[in-house]
Write a structure and sequence with these properties.
Layout (H helix, E strand, L loop, with lengths): L3 H13 L9 H22 L5 H18 L2 H13 L10 E4 L1 H5 L2 H5 L2 H7 L3 E4 L3 E2 L13 E5 L6 H13 L3 E7 L2 E3 L3 H7 L3 H4 L4 E2 L3 H9 L12 E4 L4 E4 L6 E3 L5 H15 L5 E5 L16 H17 L4 E4 L5 H6 L13 E3 L1 H13 L3 H10 L7 E4 L13 H6 L4 H13 L10 E3 L9 E3 L2 H4 L2 H7 L2 H20 L3 E5 L32 H6 L3 H19 L9 E3 L7 E8 L2 E8 L5 E4 L12 E4 L4 E4 L6 E4 L4 E6 L2
Parallel strand pairs: 1-2, 1-17, 2-5, 5-11, 11-12, 12-13, 13-14, 14-17
Antiparallel strand pairs: 3-4, 6-10, 7-9, 8-9, 15-16, 18-19, 19-20, 20-25, 21-24, 22-23, 22-25
Helix pairs in contact: 1-2, 1-3, 2-13, 3-12, 3-13, 12-13, 15-16, 15-21, 21-23
The chain binds alpha-D-glucopyranose.
Alpha-D-glucopyranose binds next to loops.
């Protein structure tokens, strides 16, 4: 939709910054004009009644121009290259890892020396957990940011981050950083000024002099950390106000009804984009809009703000993709890809949180029916959008999939979740898992699960027992979980330490800055001496197998996430299977979640009208002749197969 006044506004902003003289700016200008009407309509749908609307809209335009001016030519060239590839991030060539710089490599300088290790593993995409300034003891693992632009001294400085990024560029590695959009630390400059009584900065947050409005909010808002941080407001003595703090009391929620907050955070987003970030992880986007009488999660205005960020980013840093970290109900997660006119034009990525939790579900029960019941919804992901697939991350595992999915498999949802919590918290007699319940809500009995991949799969108990057989089963379960997440489509992101089979680390209990949060049990400190000493047979075999899984993924073009996945009819409730195919490749991926061998009729390979006679199993490296319909393909306990059709 051409809008003359917008066109003129952009032209004036370019002339003011003398950008019009350079022909290299044509691409930027074209993108700006193309997105201008969308940007204005999204911005005005939120802020049109604000008395300083014009001022802030002008600031928004200037922010975009400024971001373009600051984008180094190498990044601009990369933008163009990525745009030409269309959906560069859907590639099967990308495999990721999420890690804490300090716990993995000491600091940012140390990270450079670990790139070779990552390279060897096959990882070429790094999610560095937050590295910006965050007060020790009140940091929530870096998610309580006191300065969005200053690297925390414990990691190094901005120069070290830039050097690491350049070293990664040389190795053609991609980088993901977080932007913590929803809140700041109470030590952030804005919060400090608000505490001092500065009214303008008090409006950057939700601050109230009495409990009246906080009580109204609390009536409909769930609690995120009910054990360590009950309620959604914190009393601030210094200014005698109640401030909204949905997560920890030291994380103050930003108030996006104030356009000054939006423009400042857009500028921050561009700051990260211009560091050369390939994917920006928007932390907790579900929470960015608050409204009395609601849960204050997943509100339509939150989506409007995300769409607005995306349209602005596309203009000045179009090579940057957005990941919305929405760990919410399955139907709500899907909305972060955008809907209607904005389908596929909001966040490029979401976490495949439902699938991740359902894999843990199937591993505990040996039954894949709930996983299958969820797929019709999950397959509605718009073309061009993709998943971050994973089995573990730094956070807890929430069992947030729908009751209806559990019911579809014939289970009672309350009893089923109760079973899973006991199974993984290790309180169920005979359970091989060692984990813990996280954030138990005494009012609702809701809880999530903490624990490392290896411990939840049984390696901790098996090693303590000294049982070779149980260790082998635990390792097989670890690989089964990883394999499904590597081949289901999207970018697989390993959590550091899992490639070496790290079990839970209980040292957090003696650190007062961490002891209140048992997620630290699955955030290990990597012991490189031990790794080099070569006396960790389980770790080495997990590493080698993970490396092989990544190699296989990179070999198979059908694994690129082009919306080419279809699930097999469930011939056996223990086996989850899907086909990935493109014009020249068909790959059957099969996963047996049962502790017993599973029998799958050969008909499973023929039911889609295909006459298949031969398969090559990339995992076992064997060629397999497809048998007759009354015979069976046999999967070993917790076995899996990546079968390419070869005849
Ligand atoms: C996200 C992070 C989590 C953090 C929360 C608050 O969910 O992944 O670790 O506690 O946001 O910032």
């Amino acid at each position: 939709m051409y809008q003359h006044h917008l066109h003129q506004k952009i032209k004036r902003a370019l002339e003011k910054n003398a950008l019009h003289a350079n022909p290299a700016n044509v691409n930027f200008y074209t993108r700006f004009v193309a997105n201008a009407a969308a940007i204005e309509s999204l911005f005005s749908s939120i802020y049109q009644h604000h008395p300083a609307y014009d001022l802030y809209f002008n600031q928004l335009v200037e922010t975009i121009v400024d971001a373009h001016q600051k984008r180094r030519p190498a990044l601009q060239q990369l933008d163009e290259k990525k745009l030409e590839q269309e959906g560069w991030y859907l590639s099967n060539q990308i495999a990721g890892m999420s890690l804490y710089v300090d716990r993995f490599a000491g600091n940012l300088k140390g990270m450079s020396s670990k790139l070779e290790y990552l390279n060897k593993l096959g990882v070429n995409f790094l999610h560095l957990m937050p590295v910006f300034e965050s007060p020790a003891g009140e940091s929530d693992g870096g998610y309580a940011v006191s300065d969005f632009r200053k690297v925390d001294a414990r990691f190094g400085n901005l120069g070290d981050l830039q050097k690491l990024k350049l070293a990664m560029e040389e190795k053609e590695m991609y980088l993901m950083l977080d932007i913590v959009l929803n809140h700041t630390s109470h030590h952030h400059e804005w919060a400090r000024k608000a505490k001092e009584g500065d009214k303008a900065f008090q409006q950057y947050y939700y601050m109230y002099p009495t409990r009246e409005i906080p009580d109204q909010f609390d009536a409909s808002m769930p609690e995120i950390f009910p054990e360590s941080s009950p309620g959604n407001f914190t009393y601030v003595k210094a200014c005698n106000q109640w401030v909204m703090s949905v997560f920890h009391s030291y994380q103050w929620d930003l108030n996006y009804t104030n356009p000054a907050v939006f423009v400042a955070m857009l500028d921050t987003l561009f700051f990260y984009a211009n560091l050369g970030v390939d994917i920006l992880r928007i932390d907790a986007p579900a929470f960015i809009w608050k409204q009395l009488g609601t849960t204050c999660q997943n509100l339509p205005q939150a989506h409007t703000l995300l769409r607005l960020l995306k349209q602005c980013l596309q203009v000045a840093a179009p090579g940057v993709a957005l990941l919305g970290e929405a760990i919410v109900a399955p139907r709500e997660i899907m909305k972060y890809f955008g809907e209607g006119l904005y389908a596929g034009r909001e966040c490029d990525f979401a976490y495949h949180a439902t699938q991740m939790a359902l894999q843990w579900d199937a591993l505990a029960t040996g039954d894949t029916r709930i996983m299958l019941a969820a797929q019709p919804l999950l397959l509605q992901k718009p073309k061009g959008a993709s998943w971050i697939t994973y089995t573990r991350c730094h956070d807890d595992i929430g069992l947030g999939y729908d009751d209806s999915m559990i019911a579809a498999a014939g289970f009672n949802s309350y009893e089923h979740r109760k079973f899973l919590k006991k199974y993984y918290a290790g309180s169920l007699p005979g359970s091989p898992a060692t984990g813990a319940l996280f954030s138990v809500n005494p009012k609702t009995q809701d809880a999530r699960i903490s624990g490392s991949l290896a411990s939840l799969c049984g390696l901790e108990k098996a090693s303590k027992k000294g049982s070779q057989a149980e260790r082998a089963i635990a390792i097989q379960k670890i690989l089964l979980m990883q394999a499904q997440s590597f081949f289901i489509g999207g970018i697989p992101v390993l959590f550091y330490g899992d490639e070496q089979g790290y079990t839970n680390d209980y040292s957090y209990l003696s650190d007062p800055g961490k002891s209140y949060d048992n997620r630290w049990m699955h955030r290990p400190v990597i012991d490189w001496q031990k790794w080099e000493a070569d006396d960790n047979a389980d770790g080495k075999s997990i590493f080698t197998a993970t490396q092989r899984l990544i190699q296989i993924r990179k070999k198979l073009s059908a694994i690129a996430d082009t919306g080419n996945l279809s699930w097999l009819t469930p011939h056996n409730i223990h086996v989850a299977g899907f086909i990935r195919e493109n014009t020249h490749q068909q790959v059957y991926c099969l996963f047996n979640f049962s502790p017993q061998s599973a029998y799958l009729t050969w008909y499973a390979f023929k039911e889609k009208g295909k006459s298949i006679t031969r398969l090559y199993d990339h995992w076992t490296e064997q060629t397999i002749a497809v048998g007759s319909d009354h015979d069976y393909f046999i999967l070993q306990p917790y076995g899996f197969h990546i079968l390419e059709v070869t005849g």
